[in-house]
């Protein structure tokens, strides 16, 4: 789910597919729809970094085009990395279709994009939905608000046709934002939630449920593969699982309760010593969060163990530490998921290295971790709505297998950029 802080890199504060392969989904890979995600770096709110982002976009213009495998319904949109950490993909809204770049967020349930009525300065840099040009547009006299930590968004409820690649959801409820607060300089237009209906702020049927109810997908599952260094390669796939994205088997983990993509975690360890979650805890698998989040006390303990020094909103370490620091092991349902130092330490635009562990400000009665993109880049993840479970597996690049070697080449040319992830600050 989108969560934000003062720093873009802490934007991930609250809030993730081999689906039913045993039932033969792999055999029906022609029913899988793959949506490419664009990987983008969360930009801190400094003038120099905003200028860096603008210059980067101008110098690396491209056009996104859809690529489908011959003889199948698999749809792949090219992915783009704009300086690290945020993943976005293209959808269209309305008739005729208008294109938007959104975050596919397992921590939220609703879809929203900016409207022409938006009065916030942020909206002037985003693609805004032109409702008067749409023959399928239907308004509703209802407004709602969503808070992302220190950021917020107010919107009114409308209905229209939404397309995700070859998937079409008709009469889909979504929000058109009227006000934004705290979203300046973010390279995205809106957010598409993939969580359960019970946490919807709109109170309507989420797009995934509509796709399922309207028969657009054959199985109620979706999955994420997030590239870890290249701008291209990431996808979200609907209705089945492509086994070429992961190695071994999917390790199915039941949800703690239906309604959120939250599972029970056994422990967190380093060098065979438990360093957090000692008596078991909860973990939210969240594609809308860029980092790994937990309450301040436990995060501070981990920062000390890896020798990180606080400075501003970050904790920094020597860049040489990447080669000597141990992996941090997340054990879920008896399976160990290692996160090596090269994954939990990132280099900023100035060449300084900081950790990807951050505190989240959400008050919970039990220890709850948020496993964002830092974790998900290493582990291909399936979200099974039919059986209310998550299935992580080792992503193929962990074995040195280049993703580009297992799928058709992608062509790059030009598209709109310049909006960013709602929760990665």
UniProtKB/TrEMBL annotation:
Listed InterPro entries: Aspartic_peptidase_A1, Aspartic_peptidase_N, PEPTIDASE_A1, Peptidase_aspartic_dom_sf
Entry's Gene Ontology BP terms: proteolysis
Disulfide pattern: 118-123, 277-281, 319-353
A Pfam short name: Asp
Main location: secreted
Residue span, Peptidase A1 domain: 87-393
Superkingdom of the source species: Eukaryota
Cellular component GO terms, alphabetical: extracellular region
Keywords: Disulfide bond, Secreted, Signal
Gene3D superfamilies according to UniProt: 6.10.140.60, Acid Proteases
Catalytic residues, chain numbering: 105, 286
An annotated Gene Ontology molecular function: aspartic-type endopeptidase activity
SUPFAM superfamilies xref list: Acid proteases (SSF50630)
Compartments, record wording: Secreted, Extracellular space
Family: Belongs to the peptidase A1 family.
Protein name, UniProt field: Peptidase A1 domain-containing protein
Source organism per UniProt: Cervus hanglu yarkandensis (Yarkand deer)
Source species taxonomy: Eukaryota, Metazoa, Chordata, Craniata, Vertebrata
């Amino acid at each position: 789910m989108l969560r934000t802080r003062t720093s873009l890199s802490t934007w991930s504060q609250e809030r993730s597919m081999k689906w039913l392969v045993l039932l033969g989904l792999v055999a029906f890979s022609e029913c899988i729809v793959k949506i490419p995600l664009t990987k983008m770096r969360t930009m801190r709110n400094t003038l120099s970094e905003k200028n860096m982002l603008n210059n980067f976009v101008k110098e690396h213009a491209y056009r996104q085009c859809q690529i489908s495998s011959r003889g199948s319904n698999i749809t792949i949109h090219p992915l783009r990395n704009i300086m690290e950490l945020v993943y976005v993909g293209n959808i269209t809204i309305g008739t005729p279709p208008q294109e938007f770049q959104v975050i596919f967020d397992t921590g939220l349930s609703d879809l929203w994009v900016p409207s022409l009525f938006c009065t916030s300065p942020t909206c002037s840099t985003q693609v805004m939905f032109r409702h008067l040009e749409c023959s399928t547009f239907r308004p509703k006299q209802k407004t709602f608000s969503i808070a992302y930590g220190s950021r917020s968004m107010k919107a009114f409820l409308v209905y229209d046709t939404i397309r995700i690649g070859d998937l079409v959801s008709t009469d889909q409820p979504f929000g058109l934002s009227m006000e934004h607060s705290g979203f300046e300089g973010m390279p995205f237009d809106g957010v598409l939630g993939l969580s359960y209906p019970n946490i919807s702020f709109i109170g309507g049927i989420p797009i995934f449920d509509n796709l399922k109810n309207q028969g657009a997908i054959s199985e109620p599952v979706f999955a994420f593969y997030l590239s870890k260094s290249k701008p291209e390669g990431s996808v979200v796939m609907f209705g089945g699982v492509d086994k070429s994205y992961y190695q071994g088997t999917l390790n199915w983990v039941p949800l703690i309760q239906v309604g959120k993509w939250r599972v029970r975690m056994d422990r967190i360890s380093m060098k065979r010593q438990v360093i957090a979650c000692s008596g078991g805890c909860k973990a939210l698998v969240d594609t809308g969060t860029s980092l790994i989040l937990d309450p301040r006390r436990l995060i501070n303990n981990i920062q000390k163990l890896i020798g990180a020094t606080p400075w501003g909103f970050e904790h920094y370490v020597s860049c040489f530490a990447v080669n000597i620091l141990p992996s941090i092991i997340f054990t879920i349902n008896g399976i160990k998921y290692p996160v090596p130092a090269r994954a939990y330490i990132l280099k900023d635009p100035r060449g300084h290295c900081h950790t990807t562990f951050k505190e989240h400000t959400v008050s919970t009665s039990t220890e709850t971790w948020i496993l964002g993109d830092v974790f998900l880049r290493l582990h291909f993840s399936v979200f099974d709505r039919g059986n209310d479970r998550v299935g992580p597996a080792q992503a193929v690049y962990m074995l040195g297998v280049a993703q580009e070697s297992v799928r058709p080449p992608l062509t790059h040319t030009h598209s709109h950029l310049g909006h960013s992830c709602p929760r990665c600050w």
